[in-house]
Write a structure and sequence with these properties.
binds guanosine-5'-triphosphate, seven-stranded parallel β-sheet, alpha/beta, binds magnesium ion, globular
Amino acid sequence: MDIADLRDRILKQDRRALARAITLVESARADHRAHAGELLEFLRGNGKQALRIGLSGTPGVGKSTFIESFGMMLTAKGLKVAVLAVDPSSARSGGSILGDKTRMERLSRDPNAFIRPSPSQSHLGGVARRTREAVALCEAFGFDVVLIETVGVGQSETVVAEMSDLFLLLLAPAGGDELQGVKRGIMEMADIILVNKADGELKSTAMRTCADYAGALRLLRKRPQDPEGFPKAMTVSALQEDGLEKSWEEMTALTEWRRESGHWDMRRSAQADYWFHEEVRQGVLALLESGDVKAAIDQLGAQVSAGEVTPSAAADRVLGMLDLKTG
Ligand SMILES: Nc1nc2c(ncn2[C@@H]2O[C@H](COP(=O)(O)OP(=O)(O)OP(=O)(O)O)[C@@H](O)[C@H]2O)c(=O)[nH]1
Ligand SMILES: [Mg+2]
């Protein structure tokens, strides 16, 4: 495989080359991993930065509808938009974005948009790395905006927030008690909360819900990366394409402030460091799953249970087996 050629074609905005490169980074095969590493190294530091927007929301809240409307609005402004997904359930559903490409029918046909379904892989660590690498490829390609969608379950929000410049939380209009249902940790990650479906009969409920969340956001600890007024809550209707311009204005204002204040660069540096540590951890965990070590763990586990070895002595023996230099 000619990696230099693939790089050149990506830099020339050849979409087939991009799709091929993403397939390469998604592969678990050792030779593919090596090529992917080489390609990413080639493309590293080419100066292009997209605005990476993470978007999370529970099933049915309107993520696909929002991405379609919002994405079309951005491409109408002449911006190039890529859409990726972190979907821990995709192994089950067979790739959520692909599954509902009907909801993103217009966007998927737009020459300035690129939609990539989530790789089917149940292990979140693997999905995280592949998505992060796909983001880097889209950035090198020259997309202005990269949207990274995740369905709001479990840890996937953290994964997406840690690879985004802005993190949006999409919520549905709801009664008062349901506000409690949003975990504090997820609220704390949000830069902008969008209460969707603010149309028709749901409009007044949406406005009340929005006020509730705005109140809840004010109670959170102030973060250094926020100017006055952020994080904020607003209402939108993805279906009626209402409030989308306003939300984009807010995103732009926040982004500009962060760029000028240095928080943009600080966040990217902190994220790089986070992923470095995460990769080290994943690598060590993978070693524990490998043949000899796993067998020893199983055997020692039985001995520890039977009281024949102490837990720490058994752990020492396992750790002594790990060859971290060549693993
Ligand atoms: N009234 C109203 N309905 C909406 C709006 N946005 C989405 N919907 C509807 O809500 C339903 C779910 O929308 P989707 O965009 O598929 O939601 P999703 O978050 O992508 O759902 P999953 O992919 O299952 O996680 C659909 O019937 C949409 O038509 C909106 O702004 N207003
Ligand atoms: Mg969807």
